[in-house]
Amino acid sequence: MFFARFRFTISYRPGSLNTKADALSRLYDTDDRPIDPTPIIPASRLVAPVVWEVDADIERALVLEPAPTQVPEGRMYVPLDVRDQLIRWAHTLPAADRPGVERTARSLRGKYWWPTLAKDVRSYVSSCSVCAQSKAPRHLPRGKLQPLPVPQRPWSHLSIDFLTDLPPSQGNTAILVVVDRFSKSCRLLPLPGLPTALQTAEALFTHVFRHYGVPEDIVSDRGSQFTSRVWKAFMERLGVSVSLTSGYHPESNGQAERVNQEVGRFLRSYCRDRPGEWARYIPLAELAQNSLRHSSTNMSPFQCVLGYQPVLAPWHQSQTEDPAVEDWVQHSKETWKAVQDSLKEASARQKRSADRHRSEAP
């Protein structure tokens, strides 16, 4: 119907000029087919089936060790002599990317089988030195929690650390944080920069030791100030033992690290619009930290050290009585005993909580 609209003139076309139409209208003559046809694809581009060398080794080993009758259908039995080679091939192949125990075993189970496949794979992968050096450990942290000993009185055992890289404020860019491990009270000392060992010792003696006495032990990280000979000689002359935390393990000085977080949060809350005025808020931050009840002692640092809890606003008592010194001392001893019991309970509670996520030490 489409071609009916046209008027055609039929003319003769010789076969020599009509090769395309003749080729489509003629049958292929099988008698003219060559015995050895030449392939269209060059020989350099021919793709042959891939045969792994390890499969050939298995075939040769099966001659000496025939496969048992319980081999699952569709799998190849691997003789004993070729198993280590096969596991090494499946684990170290670049396309496999050194998988773990489960993935290596799963990749082998798809084609191969022997009775102790999972056990052999686990033994090989767990002893791979390359995996041990390059992979991140996934096991629980080694070793149970070892809490620091509970002090007997306030300001006998200290934890110190630095808050650094603060914006300049009244010429100060760092804070020396000193925490009493018994009462959890803290002293915040603004500094013009990261001090030397001698400057740190002088600041402690001027602002802490002269108020609370010389402590028995000081816990600090491995900063250059605390590993220097000056610091060790200064503390040795005063009779103070120096306890340094393990490298890259800030949890050892967790008391000071926690106060650092609280002080940083306080300064961000009240100085976010005026970051250059944080030095003015240091006394208020110290007052706030020492006035709040601590979860480990069940009382505030003020109440633990001084025997009373300061109020937020002034108040007047209708009738005042001066308590006897002995009553005050007895009350302080009872307070310290309650704090010590609470600290021991908190330490045991923290140890139980931490040990649930830790394995035994090697």
From TrEMBL:
One of its GO terms (biological process) is DNA integration. Pfam families: Integrase_H2C2, rve. Transmembrane segments: none annotated. Residues 339-362 are annotated as: Disordered. GO terms for molecular function: nucleic acid binding. InterPro entries: Integrase_cat-core, Integrase_H2C2, Retrovirus_Pol_polyprotein, RNaseH-like_sf, RNaseH_sf. Residues 150-309 form the Integrase catalytic domain. PANTHER family: INTEGRASE CATALYTIC DOMAIN-CONTAINING PROTEIN, PROTEIN CBG26694. This is Gypsy retrotransposon integrase-like protein 1. It comes from Salmo trutta (Brown trout).
